[in-house]
Design goal:
This protein has 321 residues and is α/β, with parallel strands linked by helices. It has an 8-stranded parallel sheet. The chain is built from 14 helices and 8 strands.
């Protein structure tokens, strides 16, 4: 069954990022203003195996809606079966198909951006999934496998003909990885040559970048990935000029408070030991651009409990106050 088009609400979307976009971080970003969030990339085959850890990765709260569960795979039958399982057990607002991941272990299985080398297979996967479920299906792509094969306009037109409700384009090739500049002109060309909503992604590290992407490409929404790590304010900052013409900047105390809030929620969900281990990379990111951050990071990495982390932040704020 092909569902009606999914209506995007809001302009800024949190990207799926392996190891970062768990339920705790998604909720934080929603509270700061993210209009939509996505789960980490999920293996379709692991879903069909009813893997417990995989099912836990797909759990979400009502506060996180609208939310997309992102699937990755290369077998049309397996992808369709996984989509049905997801739709029946979790009812996300969107099932997103990953055709853009450049990571070697994904590409080596002919998944993610490897499918940009086999558009026919990508088409089969998309059609099977769209026709297997009664909720909207979207897709995330790169601009091509390499410079010689870049043709995102044709790829998106194919995806549209298969019935996807919207697309996200990261305008780098797989060969680029995350190096070099994202070619936003591809986003503009896709937007001008398709009738479904287009989300732009790539090189949006602060709110000014998102504003420029809207202006230069005409995209319907902007997906923010690395720019949101340690900086969920990016969603609030982008909204501020639209509301009253001013930008609210986060100060040191607010960053430390937000990091502690994030940690507390992580511990509530995973327990103190796992919660702190999961949070170390986030804590380091929250300290980015803070004064005397090297010493702060050293103490945060050594912290073993929430009390330890709280003490580190309190001493830090007192020391620079």
């Amino acid at each position: 069954m092909i569902p009606t088009s999914f209506n995007l609400s809001g302009k800024l979307v949190l990207a799926p990022m392996a190891g970062f976009t768990d339920s705790v971080f998604r909720i934080i970003c929603k509270r700061f203003g993210a209009a939509m969030v996505f789960t980490d990339l999920i293996s379709a085959r692991a879903i069909t195996y009813k893997n417990k850890k995989t099912f836990e990765m797909m759990e979400f709260s009502e506060e996180e809606r609208p939310i997309g569960i992102q699937l990755c795979g290369s077998d049309p039958d397996v992808m369709a079966e996984a989509a049905i399982i997801v739709a029946e057990n979790f009812r996300p607002d969107v099932i997103d198909l990953n055709f853009g991941c450049p990571v070697k272990k994904v590409v080596n299985k002919n998944e993610g951006s490897a499918l940009l080398k086999d558009i026919s297979l990508m088409s089969k996967i998309t059609s099977r999934v769209v026709n297997a479920v009664d909720i909207p299906v979207s897709a995330k792509i790169r601009s091509g496998w390499d410079k010689e094969s870049e043709d995102p306009v044709s790829v998106v037109n194919m995806l549209q003909s298969c019935g996807v409700s919207f697309v996200t384009i990261h305008p780098r090739t797989r060969a680029q990885g995350y190096k070099g500049a994202a070619n936003w002109d591809w986003i503009r060309q896709v937007k001008e040559n398709t009738s479904i909503p287009v989300i732009g992604n790539g090189d949006v590290l602060k709110y000014q970048d998102a504003a420029r992407m809207f202006q230069q490409t005409g995209c319907d929404a902007v997906m923010i990935g690395r720019g949101a790590l340690g900086n969920p304010w990016i969603f609030k900052d982008m909204a501020a000029p639209q509301q009253d013409g001013s930008i609210e900047q986060s100060d040191v105390t607010e960053k430390c408070f937000a990091a502690m809030t994030h940690l507390k929620q992580s511990i509530e969900k995973y327990g103190e030991y796992s919660g702190i281990r999961r949070m170390r990379k986030h804590l380091i990111l929250y300290t980015h651009n803070l004064p005397k951050s090297r010493e702060l990071r050293k103490h945060l990495i050594e912290a073993k409990s929430m009390k330890d982390v709280d003490g580190v932040f309190r001493e830090y704020v007192k020391g620079i106050g």
